[in-house]
Amino acid sequence: MPLKRKNYSGKNFNNAHSIEELHKIACRRIPNFALEYVVGGAEDEATLAWNREALKAIRFIPNTLVDTSSRHQRIKLFEQDSRSPLIIAPTGLNGMLHHNADVALAKAAAKNGIPFCLSMVSNSSLEGVAEDAGGRLWMQLYVMINRDITRNILARAEEAGYEALVFTSDANVFGNREWDQRNYRAPAKLTIRNLIDVALHPRWAFDVLVPHGVPRFENIVKFMPSEAQSASGGVAIFPKLFAPNISWQDVEWLREKWPRKLVIKGILSVVDAMRATELGCDGIIVSNHGGRQLDGCVSPIEVLPEIADAVGKQTAIIVDSGFRRGTEVLKAMALGAHAVMIGRATLFGLAAGGEAGANHALSILTTEIDRSLGQLGCNSVAELGPHLLAKN
Ligand SMILES: Cc1cc2nc3c(=O)[nH]c(=O)nc-3n(C[C@H](O)[C@H](O)[C@H](O)COP(=O)(O)O)c2cc1C
Questions:
Q1: For ligand 1, what atom is nearest to the CA of residue 290?
Q2: Which end of the chain is more exposed for a tag (fewer CB within 10 A), N or C?
Q3: Per annotation, catalytic residue among 289, 338, 360, 387
């Protein structure tokens, strides 16, 4: 009788075969409240679930009997070589998953020859990441009510040599992540169950909390009220800091002030993609914030083809939200994306094994991309196109 498949129970991140296996290891390594923060989506999590479904629903029609022995996955992005069509997405509060997490992710990106985008609400300062990790660095920006924060980040990111500024446009109002909120009995106070769960993760606590204290929002600490400077306090106050009045005027202003590459993250319509292009943005990120903002939203992969048709020749098209497999990266590229941003995939690696874990996540994805390119009968991602996809 054949052995039955069991749930994955591996503990060593190096043995994980897939991003999903890294996710399972991360589930065991970090306490529930930190895990919820990473995996959760807004409200009923319909957007979150649909991001995965929409990617899975696309099917390939491969070419066969093609010599693919010279295949590679290099791309050119903003006139520079990337070893693979991936970018690590900006994610705030990484320090709750691992000590010095932003530097760990940036080092993993540099090692794999791809850009790393630092969140404005990171736990390492943008200068610290540039100094300790190097590599191709992009800086993400939330325009908050206090526009002094924006001016400060812009000046510092330019001084520190960041290649691109990524303005996140889909967080004018903070997402309603209910599972995240349920973990707190009062602002910054975990429920008793969650406190017990923290106590059951001593290895995590000694890495993240004990020697250095609760991670702080190092980029913007001087702008935060004292009770909101640490990750636990900041989370409660955050939603009030986001500016509901951000508009295209901010994009015009940023274009004037920021001399390097400007990218708008959170575009989902052709009209907005065209507007960003007309205002001189160098790239757009077709994204629904990984299902963490508007629930009941289209998945970026659904709207990608028409956006790529409209502006793909004038501007760099990056897509994110839900990518967990190399095949899914190739589907997006076949539909017109120039590169794919990954959020949770590398966070699972980070939570499972720090920098080496994040590196393992990237190695899983790049190996999958390489293998699938070959199976599709392609020698480079430039050969991908809609002709390799089934029409539904
Ligand atoms: C834990 C977490 C924190 C995030 N923080 C930010 C952030 O600070 N700024 C931002 O623009 N996007 C943020 N995002 C969204 C990501 O940049 C990206 O759009 C999303 O993770 C892509 O979906 P994926 O996680 O399914 O790959 C965050 C996402 C996650 C999962």
A1: 23
A2: N
A3: 289
Among this protein's residues, is 289 annotated catalytic? yes
Residues in the chain with pLDDT values less than 50: none
Q: State residue 226's pLDDT score.
A: 76
32-177+240-388 has CATH 3.20.20.70 classification: yes
Residue 38 in contact with ligand 1 by CB distance below 6 A:
yes
SS3 labels along the chain = CCCCCCCCCCCCHHHCCCHHHHHHHHHHHCCHHHHHHHHCCCCCCHHHHHHHHHHHHCCECCCCCCCCCCCCCCEEECCEEECCCEEECCCCCHHHCCCCHHHHHHHHHHHCCCCEEECCCCCCCHHHHHHHCCCCEEEEECCECCHHHHHHHHHHHHHCCCCEEEEECCCCCCCCCHHHHHCEEECCEECHHHHHHHHCCHHHHHHHCCCCCCCECCCCHHHCCHHHCEHHHHHHHHHHCECCCCCHHHHHHHHHHCCCEEEEEEECCHHHHHHHHHCCCCEEEECCHHHCCCCCCCCHHHHHHHHHHHHCCCCEEEECCCCCCHHHHHHHHHCCCCEEEECHHHHHHHHHHHHHHHHHHHHHHHHHHHHHHHHHCCCCHHHCCHHHECCC
Domain boundaries, the chain: 32-177+240-388
CA of 69 to the centre of ligand 1 (A): 36
- Is the CB–ligand 1 distance for residue 320 below 6 Å? yes
The per-residue pLDDT for 5 is 64
